[in-house]
Amino acid sequence: MLATQPAALARDATEAAAVLGGLARSVSSGVPVSTAITSAGESLVELAEPPDAGHREEHALTLRERGAELLERSRDVWDDDEARILLLLLQGGPQPSVDVRTGGPVGMVHSQLVAPGLTMIGGRAGCRHLDQVPSYLNNLFRLGLVWFSREALRDPMEYQVVEAQPDVLEAMHSVKFPKVVRRSIHLTPFGEDFCRMCLVDEEPESDTAFPAHGTPPETDSSEPPSS
After folding, report:
1. φ and ψ at 101, to 5 degrees?
2. Do the Cβ atoms of 183 and 95 come closer than 8 Å?
3. Closest by alpha carbon to 171, among 93, 79, 101, 95?
4. In the chain, domain spans
5. Are 89 and 99 in contact (CB under 8 A)?
6. Helices (H), the chain
7. Residues 201 and 67 sit within 8 Å (Cβ to Cβ)
8. Which of 35, 54, 104, 141 is in the most buried spot, having the most CB atoms within 10 Å?
9. Quick one: CA dihedral 32, 33, 34, 38, positive or negative?
10. Are 225 and 116 contacting, i.e. CB atoms less than 8 angstroms apart?
11. How far is CA 211 from CA 31, 75, 146, 180, 192, in A?
12. Around Cβ 59, how many Cβ atoms within 10 Å?
């Protein structure tokens, strides 16, 4: 059981975030995702024990159970809505995102950002707190699970519904000469493996069962949009 005192909750959240960050770094350095998840699950189980509890016998947990433990123990830094977003990306593929900037003659010289990273991810994923979706995405980026591409998706139809949304139209109408820049949001390779291991009940029959995601570049172009 997690401690209920504010200080203890803050400590648990910090420790859980550290474990998740270590998990991403381990996979990035070449550790197999199954091994990394097992190690992270063991660390989180240890965090769940009270200080005066002895070393209990390790349960024969499956990798998916360890992944569930990972998500449960990091609840203060991992929201259910974030898991819904990951499932949307895994099952639905990369998602369209748009920035609204100033255009026209002035925009050709110095374009200003009006509204960054507008998407329909929250609604499509069934998130309960739509206003928190940018924060969820930033947190998933921080944990190494998603990345933000400067490239648009190949199918322009993906953007038509997004660009007709009220928040996009409001941003466009707030300036005289708006310009819409199309981008996209992807799972990282680590994010794909993590979702397959922890968030789906059964492995697909083939790798083609889930849509493909792009690979993040070596440059800083994969950083989240900023206001």
Report:
1. -125, 165
2. no
3. 101
4. 6-78, 82-214
5. no
6. 6-28, 33-48, 63-73, 80-92, 104-109, 121-125, 133-142, 157-163, 166-173, 189-198
7. no
8. 141
9. positive
10. yes
11. 24, 28, 15, 26, 10
12. 10
Q: Which of the listed ranges 1-10, 47-56, 99-108 does the model predict with the highest average pLDDT?
A: 99-108
**Alpha-carbon gap, residue 188 to 197, rounded angstroms:** 14
Are the CB atoms for 146 and 78 separated by under 8 Å?
A: no
CB count within 10 Å of CB 4 equals 7
- Using the Cα atoms of residue 197, residue 29, residue 153 and residue 155 in order, give the sign of their dihedral: negative
Asked if the 82-214 domain carries CATH number 3.10.540, the reply is: no
Q: What does the pLDDT average to over 138-155? A: 93
Residue 118's DSSP bridge partners are 98
CA distance 124 to 69: 26
Higher pLDDT, 135 or 79: 135
Per-residue pLDDT, averaged over 53-76, amounts to 52
| b/e map 15-26, b = 16+ CB within 10 Å | bbbebbeebbeb
Average confidence (pLDDT) over 168-190: 94
Q: How far apart are CA 169 and CA 124, in angstroms?
A: 19
Non-local CB neighbours of 150 within 8 Å, separated by 6+ positions: 183, 221
Whether the CB-CB separation of 163 and 180 falls below 8 Å is answered with: yes
Across 43-57, 70-84, 153-167, the highest mean pLDDT is recorded for 153-167
Q: Tell me the whole-structure pTM to 2 decimals.
A: 0.69
